[in-house]
Amino acid sequence: MKKYMLLKRCLLTASMIGMFMASTVHVQCTEGTFYSSKEESQLIEKLRKECEDAGYTLGHFGSGSGQTDNSQDTSNQETVKQAKSCEHDYVESITKEATCAEDGEMISKCSKCGDSYKTVIPATGKHDYVSETTKEATCTEAGVLTYTCKVCGDSYTEEIPIIDHKYEESVTKDATCLESGEITYTCSMCGDSYTEEIAATGHEAGTPIVTKEAGWFTPGEKVTRCTRCEEVLSTEAMPSRFPVAYLYILISVIAIFVIVGISLTVMKKKNAKSKLAKSA
Ligand SMILES: [Zn+2]
Ligand SMILES: [Zn+2]
Ligand SMILES: [Zn+2]
Ligand SMILES: [Zn+2]
């Protein structure tokens, strides 16, 4: 009973396909071969399974009354019986490989009765792209990267972003002790340039040089100059070779001698006067 219901459904669906194809189609669950478009073959494949599950085989179809009438077609009834006897054992073989852009084709053939049908293998849509730089990016213009499918030739492009400038630096003005210098950066690709200041170096003090030797009683002089620009940075006095402290001591000693000398002379004169007064 269940099988009968399924068979009926097969026939009914087949009638619908018939209407879909805009021509009345007479379909039987029987053995046979047919060819169809992708959509149709998918529908019929579904139908075939239902038929097979029910123990029948979906077979020949062509122009007909649009209604399945087994009683009018005794030959078909016979094929149905035959179909029941063959439990199809389909062996699939790909006759045309599907590519990224083109549909492939597969034939399923029954190893027992030779019944066969074709199935469309849909195009994979998976392109095998190879990239190639068709235009190098520079510092002013974007580049182009082209992807081309090795199989079907389909292609598309991608933008390569603008690259950084390639600046080369050169000192266009040296910095001095007091004046700043300048570095110029120039792009080797587009010629774009900009400058940067080099800060003034400032003086660099060298070792002090004696310009006037110190005498015994006269001071000397030491001068410190910049090693770069020779400018005098500082002048230093050098003390005389005879120490000042000794000079003071010497003066003090001389002063003491002078005072003592004078005192003795005065006292001698006083004594001489008083002796003269006594004797007189
Ligand atoms: Zn078979
Ligand atoms: Zn492709
Ligand atoms: Zn540049
Ligand atoms: Zn200097």
Order of helices and strands: HEHEHEEEEEEEEEEEEH
User: Average pLDDT across residues?
Assistant: 79
Proportion of helical residues: 25-40%
- Report low-confidence residues grouped into runs of 5 or more: 1-37, 59-76
Task: Please report the number of helical segments.
Answer: 4
Bound compounds, please?
Answer: zinc ion
Percentage of residues in strands:
25-35%
Rg: 62 Å
Instruction: Determine the structural class based on helices, strands and strand pairing.
Output: alpha+beta
Give, in spatial order, the strands making up the sheet with the most strands: 3-4-5
What distance separates the N and C termini? 196 Å
The total number of structural domains is 5
Please tell me what the overall shape is: rod-shaped
Number of E-state strands: 14
Main sheet overview: 3 strands, antiparallel
Keywords: Membrane, Plasmid, Signal, Transmembrane, Transmembrane helix
Organism: Butyrivibrio proteoclasticus (strain ATCC 51982 / DSM 14932 / B316) (Clostridium proteoclasticum)
Signal peptide: 1-27
Protein name: C2H2-type domain-containing protein
Notes on the structure:
This protein is of the alpha+beta class and 280 residues long. It has 5 domains: 2-94, no CATH class; 129-160, no CATH class; 167-198, no CATH class; 209-238, no CATH class; 244-280. The protein is 30% helix and 30% strand. It is built from 4 helices and 14 strands. It has helices at 2-20, 38-53, 74-85, 244-279, and strands at 25-27, 61-63, 90-96, 104-110, 116-121, 129-135, 143-149, 155-160, 167-173, 181-187, 193-198, 209-212, 220-225, 232-238. The strands form 5 sheets. A 3-stranded antiparallel beta sheet has the order 3-4-5. The N and C termini lie far apart (196 Å). 9% of the residues are buried. Residues 1-37 and 59-76 have low confidence and may be disordered. The chain crosses the membrane at residues 245-266. Residues 1-27 form the signal peptide. Keywords: Membrane, Plasmid, Signal, Transmembrane, Transmembrane helix. This is C2H2-type domain-containing protein.
